[in-house]
Design a protein that fits this description.
- By secondary structure, this protein is an alpha/beta fold.
- Helix content is 38%, strand content 19%.
- The chain is built from four helices and four strands; from the N terminus they run αβαβαβαβ.
- Strands 1-2 form a two-stranded parallel ribbon. Strands 3-4 form a two-stranded parallel ribbon.
- Helix 2 links the parallel strand 1 and strand 2.
- The chain is globular, with a radius of gyration of 19 Å.
């Protein structure tokens, strides 16, 4: 079933959220220590500042890509909201669904990275399906 068909209901207002979660890169507290031994006069930003800039750039690029998908749905008369979050994907999706009072979560079955491609169900989709407070549709 196509998402556009799923979103069409007679005499009702349907809002579709397209959510992308950037997985957070965890750094140990001591990671920035090496950056502090650079000689004076050379401006070096900390690793955490670099990560902050990197996440900002990734969010902008992702929102740009999501806006292309948004245009496709809007031509079909479907209200779209796009959002990019940072953190653990399964937790961010569950929290978002609760805060926005989502009726249905549609999630891909597997990740697009590494050996997980050969699994029948990825860890994120499995956790969302097991722990979500609303129905979950897993798409293969």
């Amino acid at each position: 079933m196509k998402i556009a068909k799923l979103c069409r209901r007679e005499n009702s207002i349907v809002e579709l959220f397209i959510l992308h979660v950037l997985e957070e890169i965890h750094l140990p507290p001591s990671f920035d220590y090496g950056m502090k031994i650079i000689p004076p006069g050379i401006e070096i930003k900390s690793t955490r500042e670099h990560l902050k800039k990197l996440y900002h750039e990734m969010k902008l690029k992702t929102l740009e890509l999501l806006s292309e998908k948004k245009k496709i749905f809007e031509t079909k008369g479907i209200s779209i909201v796009t959002q990019v979050l940072v953190g653990k994907p399964n937790q961010q999706i569950k929290d978002f669904a609760i805060s926005e009072k989502v009726d249905l979560i549609v999630v891909g079955a597997i990740s697009l990275k590494g050996i997980q491609k050969i699994k029948t169900l990825g860890s994120v989709s499995r956790k969302i399906a097991e722990e979500s407070k609303c129905p979950v549709m897993i798409v293969h």
